[in-house]
UniProtKB/TrEMBL annotation:
Stated role: Negatively regulates growth hormone (GH) receptor cell surface expression in liver. May play a role in liver resistance to GH during periods of reduced nutrient availability.
GO cellular component: endosome; membrane
Domain of life: Eukaryota
One GO-annotated biological process of the protein: negative regulation of growth hormone receptor signaling pathway
Protein name: Leptin receptor overlapping transcript-like 1
Transmembrane segments: 21-49, 55-75, 87-107, 113-139
Family of the protein in this entry: Belongs to the OB-RGRP/VPS55 family.
Main location: membrane
Bilayer topology: Multi-pass membrane protein
UniProt keywords, alphabetically: Membrane, Transmembrane, Transmembrane helix
Subcellular locations according to the entry: Membrane
Amino acid sequence: MYINTKKWELCKQCIKGICCVCVYTLISLSFGGAIGLMFLMLGCALPVYDKYWPLFLLFFYILSPIPYCISRRVVDDTDSASNACKELAIFLTTGIVISAFGLPIIFARAEVIAWGACALVLTGNVVIFGTILGFFLVFGSNDDFSWQQW
């Protein structure tokens, strides 16, 4: 079996046994979240737009992972069949995400915010929800690399 010695030497320098890949993944996910929030703030705070109604989307960003996290704690994953609790959590999460994309469009149609602000907010939505999805894809499994150990 071939072992890349340069990567192994970098991983030897990790602090307190934390995997380098884990740290790099967390850094990239936090960068993605910061970029998404930057787009949201630009859609609110630019002098051309100057309306802060899109900040209500922060509630959707906070609420979106909660149903899935609750179902992960309640459901036993040993069953290979679909589970009603997990399906309900995915349904609720989908509803929250679609509402987060619909709210800026409704604001723009009602002329509460400008269409340019709507475009910036929708871009921020794509980046932030992609970051949340990336977090659960990388840290969602039940192995040594899981977020549940924190």
